[in-house]
Amino acid sequence: MTKILVVDDDPNVQRLLRVTLKQEGFEVVVAGDGTEGLRLWEADAPDLILLDVTLPKVDGYAVATRIREVEGQETHVPIIMLTAEKEVEQKVRGLRAGADDYLVKPFHQAELLARMKSLLARFGAREGTGGGRPPLGKLLAFYGAKGGVGTTTLAINTAISLHQEQHRRVALVDGVLQFGDHRVFLDLGNDRKSIADVVNAPAIDADLLKSVVVRHDSGVDLLLAPPNPEESDLVHESQMSQSLAQLRTMYDYVVVDVEKRLGDLTLSVLDHADMIFVVMTADLSCLKNVRLVLEALGRIGYEQSKVKLLLNRSNAFTGISIQAAEGALKRPFEYKIANEYRVAISAQNSGSPFAFTKADSPLGREVAAMAATIDKIHAPAAPAKSVAR
Length: 389
Ligand SMILES: Nc1ncnc2c1ncn2[C@@H]1O[C@H](COP(=O)(O)OP(=O)(O)O)[C@@H](O)[C@H]1O
Ligand SMILES: [Mg+2]
Known about the structure:
The chain has 2 domains: about 5-125, Rossmann fold, CATH 3.40.50; about 140-380, 3-Layer(aba) Sandwich (Rossmann fold), CATH 3.40.50.300. The protein has 15 helices and 13 strands. It has helices spanning about 10-25, 35-45, 60-70, 90-95, 110-125, 150-165, 180-185, 205-210, 235-250, 265-270, 285-300, 320-330, 340-350, 355, 360-380, and strands at about 5, 25-30, 50, 80-85, 100-105, 140-145, 170-175, 215, 220-225, 255-260, 275-280, 305-310, 335. By secondary structure, it is α/β, with parallel strands linked by helices. Adenosine-5'-diphosphate binds near residues 144, 147, 148 and 151.
């Protein structure tokens, strides 16, 4: 059960929070001053702290500062500061002291819960296991070594196969914010909601995401890219990260078609990834880019084992054999998908992915086999639930 530490000297606030949070299924521990708060933080290892600013003995700022000093890099307990005033200065001080969020008293229950859930989702992932917390969904990132190698094609069809054949709950995110192709590949108009509709909300929680995702006929839920390039600037990397963290609590798999540019936004996706599929074809510019990408991901500190090489159009004639390509990269391809241009292009141009409408085609079967392998690797952590829809 998720444990919340409330540090507040006002008995009314203590009582109210105890009741509200218990109703929501949280375990609650309460401290009446800063010293007691620090003691319970150490003794009880709460999943989140609600911390009043004005406290007897040690005040809220000092408590937050102390916790951040002691906990180091490995863990991060989310802290929401509760203050009596709307002063910007208080807010800034709280955030500087290490708070993650901030609420002015009196606050609405719904807002408190939304902010708590958003923070729990965001930090739950890094904290490891917090008692009975259910396992998070796996994030599969598809990253193209260059444009046109089939990244979008494979991300979409793998997502659909994981749902249709493996019966998993799947969210598919178009992370190519400026020129995302999912509306074209999936025959959806510009009127459908996108991640731009997520960023204006006060808190990114499950209800919000449920209202923004678009259910595809295949049963996969889509978080689309904005319909026009300007709107992509609205999406900050922290919002991308929060959205993904939240989606991971709601689905067995979150499949992301990732932007090529290796900037903060891309890294906010790759940070979450359980597997990064580097999609490529056997040509010189891909080989050069894959080498650069592998080096960059290594420098950033990602484990090599989470990076998988995916050779698309593997039997197309390029003048470079699979063996030669593997030799150049000094590692084998983990996955190979054959060249079948007709099926791929007609699925794309008709807006109906082959994994959905032509699952029996050779290309459909190859992608299904890859999805099955991926699912087998992750199955122990995420047992199939009956998809009752
Ligand atoms: N396995 C494949 N065999 C043949 N053509 C493919 C294959 N995968 C993708 N394609 C085609 O390659 C082109 C680029 O695909 P796309 O998924 O848009 O690539 P990217 O997202 O990497 O730019 C499309 O015309 C698509 O139909
Ligand atoms: Mg693409």
